[in-house]
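Question thread 4412

I'm putting together a teaching handout and wanted feedback from people who do this every day. The idea is simple: show students a protein as raw sequence, then show them the structure tokens that encode its fold, then repeat with a second protein so they can compare. Below is the first pair exactly as I plan to print it.
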Amino acid sequence: MSLSAQTPRVAIVTGGIGGLGTEICRQLAQAGRQVIAVDLPAREERLHAFQQEVADLNGAIRFEPADVSQFESCADLIGRVESAHGSVDILVNAAGITRDTSLRKMSPQQWHELMRVNLDGVFNMCRNVVEGMSARSFGRIVNLSSVNGQTGQFGQTNYSAAKAGVHGFGMALARETARKGITVNTVSPGYCDTALVAAVPADIREQIVADIPVGRLGLPGDIARAVTFLTADDAGYITGANLPVNGGYFMSF
């Protein structure tokens, strides 16, 4: 009998309250993981709505507050989770923000705010779990990048740079940890049916969909399935990879 059949592996999902993050939490829980959804301290009504959304999973998803942009907050989070639930086996870095504007108009604050969450947050979380994973000779890390980290996007020099950096970070960490039983991979979503894309003007959204070969926006479930696949116990021979989930919007060899 495998370890996961005896004791559920503990999975942390940053950015766990939200369209993509919540669905990733759900699918990991359905795969038998004990999931910790991490987000900023939530307004009571937002947290209640999240808890109602995952109530059918009978406690397989718990919420813990943390600020991924702060190293000490991440260290404290890992300590709390390990004390309450056991060692962290799976880390999904899905937390991210946007601060869109052209570089000519971008302030240093807009650059640094985004980098602290989207790129520093990946370092802060990985740094705090990698030693434990190494000691136990098992770990699954998946970092969410973006198709715009591959193609660039007008008004997103900060976002595109951070998301490209996420995969570079992941490839390097994959090399460092491969002999320790840890895999580190990237999932790069394309345009998905989320609140962020819903806020795009209708004519622009229609053009985006027209440029996607499969003819539709992605669904949170499309991304979550890729994450669940890469975090499986038997996915140990895939590391340093980037899995694009974009409906063919961007294809590369």
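The second pair follows. I'd like the answer to focus on this one:
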Amino acid sequence: MPVEGPDLHRGDHHPQVGADILALPSSQLQRIALIRISQLTRGEIRGAPLEAMARHPDVSDCLKLYFDLSQNEHRVAGGQAPRWRIVYRLRDALSGPDARMLLQVVAVGARAASEVYQLAGTRLERQRIVRAPAPQESPAPAAAAPRQRSLVEAQRLAAERLRRAQSRRR
């Protein structure tokens, strides 16, 4: 029987992460979340970096790990993205005999409506990102700007063009 070495990271979590895991809708998802957190701590898997997102708290120093009932981390049944996320961050090691980096799980929750990212931002006491509009070089003349049309209007115009083209052929 192989002897496992020490974990790559020292594990830590926000005090409410246990409640996050228990709030998952099935015991199977709860078990998968615990397995994924254990794999992260051992260094067997790694999540993807989060980017700053408009209208969300800045958790760009964190990483996300996908999970769902399927073991495939990128797609589940029907080609959809996994519905659940683990948001965590790696922090510098503390001084002392245990010099491993600290892996801190911040939140576990649903991907839907960016719920887990909002939760992580709240727990890290982060502010929402406010992005200023991109600077414009020079305003384009009003005549050159394309007119935005509703879908109904665009469909009506396309049908009218088709009728004109067919009548020309006759």
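Top answer:
Good format. For the second protein you could add a caption like this: Helices lie at 17-22, 27-42, 115-123, 151-169. Residues 151-169 form the longest helix (19 residues).
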